[in-house]
Each structure stands twice: as structure tokens, then as C-alpha cells.
Write a structure and sequence with these properties.
- By secondary structure, the protein is an alpha+beta fold.
- It has one domain: Hotdog Thioesterase (Thiol Ester Dehydrase, Chain A, Roll), CATH 3.10.129.10.
- A 5-stranded antiparallel sheet has the order 1-3-4-5-2.
- The longest helix is centred in the first third of the chain and has 18 residues.
- It is elongated and about 45 Å long.
- The relative contact order is 0.25.
Length: about 130
Amino acid sequence: MMNSHSLAIRVRYHEIDGQGRVHNSQYLNYFERGRVEMLRENGISYRELEESGLMLVVKTLHVDFHVPAEFDDELELTTTLCHCHGAKVEHAYDLRRPRCQSVIVTGHSTIACIDRSGKVRRLPKQLQLGLIRS
């Protein structure tokens, strides 16, 4: 079960630091965008999931920085579903400059499903099925 989703990202001016490079915190936002768009592509609305009382929260996140990205760079983020079972979803991330294929950052995360009170909950069946279909 390896679903992948690609997302084009153009670096915006407010995402860079004083050195003219993408601030490291922005990569976490890019990863979040990749996960949400992957859900949407698989017919799952994150908004509807939250309205049902469930949330997907970051449990662990690891980022490896390779080379910096800069203002106005065109990037491509590939988000890959690695594992989806019980109450967790694991993703891998690969952010590159598509023209030259240089790797900007790579990473992986574990996302947990919780309810509004913060209790861990199993992923709903429709979410699991939506994520694991090709």
C-alpha cells in the first residue's frame, strides 16, 4: 500500500528568512499541505473529518535538510503513504526542484487520530479505505 501524491509549490516571499532562504519551519507547512491534498485527492475531506469529532495530529516528525530553497523557486513535494493502521498514519516526504531533481528536504511523520477530548481513536474505516486505495 504505497499511495503517492505530488504537489507543486512556489516559494513565497513571506516564507523566507533574513538569508533569503526558506525558513526551516515552512517545510512543516509544506508537509501539512501535502497530507491534506493527498486526503482530498482520495475523496476525503479533512474538514468533514473534524466536523465528525476526529482530528489527525502529528505524533512524530523528522526532517532531513539537504540544500536550501529560495524565494520564487518552483518545487515539487511528493507525499507517500507508507502505513495506515489502527490509529496512525505514516507518511514520507520528498521535496525537490523538478527541473534539476535536486533534493531540498526529505522527511517522515507519524500522524495519530484523536477525538476532541484528546483520546486516541481508531481511524474510521472510510478513511482507511480512502487512503489505501490506488
